[in-house]
Each structure stands twice: as C-alpha cells, then as structure tokens.
Amino acid sequence: MSHNIANRNGRDCMMYTGEVPWHKLGTKLNRPATSAEAIQAAGLDWEVRKVPLYAVDERTFLPAFPYWAVVPADRWGRPDCPIFGVVGSDYDILQNREAFAFFDAVVGKNAAIYHTARALGQGENIWLLAKLPGIMTITGGDSVEKYVLLSTGHDGRSAVRITITGVRVVCQNTLTQALGTGQTFLRAQHNRTLKPRLAETALVLRAINQAYQRMEKVCKAMLHRNLDDDEARAYFCDVIAPPAPIKGRQTPPPWVVADREGCFRQFKECPGINLPGIGGTLWAAYNGVTDYYDHVRKYGLHGDGNRMAGALFGRGLEIKNRAYQVAERMVNRLNRLR
Known about the structure:
Blueprint: E1 7-8, E2 11-12, E3 14-17, E4 27-29, H1 35-41, E5 48-56, E6 61-72, E7 85-87, H2 96-107, E8 114-120, E9 125-139, E10 142-153, E11 160-168, E12 174-178, E13 187-188, H3 194-199, H4 201-222, H5 229-239, H6 254-269, H7 282-296, H8 307-312, H9 315-337
Parallel strand pairs: 3-4
Antiparallel strand pairs: 1-2, 3-8, 5-6, 6-7, 8-9, 9-10, 10-11, 11-12, 11-13
Helix pairs in contact: 5-6, 5-9, 6-7, 7-9
C-alpha cells in the first residue's frame, strides 16, 4: 500500500515530530512547530482556485456552468496541473493557511502546537494534528495529552472535520472520539456557511473542552469496572463485529477472530498494564483495543504502512470509536445500578 503523500516539485508534503515514519518521507522537526513553521516545513504554502469548466468537441465550445474545477493556483496553465475535484458555484474554498489559522485562533497565534501536517494524493486532502494545553490524569502514573485533528480537502467531496485525539502518555495510544455528531460547525461542508462556523472559535473551543471533560470522566469510571477474561472477550466481540453482509454466519471470518484475539492479548500485555489499579479493568480492555489498532495490527502491505492514517481515519478510527462507545454504555449501566 502506498504512503500516498503528495509530492510537489520534488518535495514531500509532510512535517512531523517524534519517530520517523516507515516511508522516511517528509521533514522532521525537533520540536512542535508554529503554524508558520508547519506550513513551510510540510510544503503546504500554496493555494487553490476555482476555474470554470467547458464542454468541448470538434464542433462546439460551451461553458459547463455551474461546474468548476479546483486546481492548485501555482500550477494552473501547466500541462501537469492536476484537477483536485469538480464543484458547483457555491463551493467555498478553505485554503491551507486558513485551516492552520483556525487552530491559531483557538490556542493563540505563534503557539508551538503542530506535531504533524501532511497533504495526500496530489495535494487534494490535508490534515493537521495539534496539541492543546493541559493533560487528563486518569490515575497515578497514567495520563492523556490532548490533541485536535483537523482534516479537510480540495476535492469537492471532503467535509471539514474536527476530531479530538487524546494520546495516552505511557503507550502513545490514540483515544479518538469524533466530536459532536450533528453539530454542523464541527463537521462543515465547503459552502458559504463554512468560514463563519470556523470563525466561531469560542464555540468550537467550548465543545472541545466539554468533550475532553466528558472523556476524562468516562475513562476514570472505566477503572471501577472490573472484567474477568470472559467479560473482556465479550467486550471485544461487541466492539469488533462482523460486517453486515456476513452477520448471519455462525462463525465470524478469520480476520475478525484475529483482531479480537489481538485485542485480548493487548488487554493482558499493553504498556501501563502493571500500573496500580489498571489490570483487569474496562480501562485496560479499552486500551487493549487502542494499543492493538495503533501499534500491532498490520495495515496494508507494509508492516507500518498507513498506520497513522488507519488509526486516525480508517478502520482503526471506526473500531476505537466503537470501543469507547461500548465502554461508555457499560460505565453508564454500572452507574445506574449503584
């Protein structure tokens, strides 16, 4: 599986801090970056524009109104200029610098918060990972740092999405949770309402903080729900369910069994399991899932191929969200019984 990182003029469009990714591409920084540093280091300091489309054959040349092509402005007119997507007249472009400006408005301009930024494909998809102030202490020696992930695209299909992504310090597991289902300023289409919604930074920051406060309470409550091995296996079966078309089968497909067993192993062995009060709890089981999908499960043809993308966007994100939701239901049920 390809890394799919965009390359512009011989330069890979990615910056990162920390460990070198498997593909060894992008610009490594020794510390988190400011928005200006991240845009430059990731090669994202370019803009897109809309250009009108035309229908052409040997006899006719007609405007294809109301359709437009989204293209990189600096390559327009060149034979190798890509078309990122076809959009309508009401499509509102969010430039790369405007995506970074959103984070600047939330945490303060010139703050060194950016840990990863990259463009995928030919540059049509962008995502940024930024660290927020503060930390969640789940129990002694077990804490979670707070990150926010913003993804957007210039392809005419990708909405602007904001996701909270806690990172457990002891093992670097990503505790992802989609923010605010149904809250349109946190999942916004590229239309005339996009920028006004992103401009409401106080509302966005309040929603992020409330989501993290809720997550901290739920994670702490997981410590009080003990699980024996049978209960843990039942939790993993609930989290990792077969796809709908094969639900009628008596036995789950091999990859479902392998994923469930992988999570059970991490429930017993993941980093931090020996910290006081963690082993044999729902918190350990939940982290068995996050550890497996972040660090153990294979994604694609490469051992680490697309690992971060899989953990933050693909099936890994889907399963980890479900793991959190199932654990939250179990915690709520326990609280009702008390």
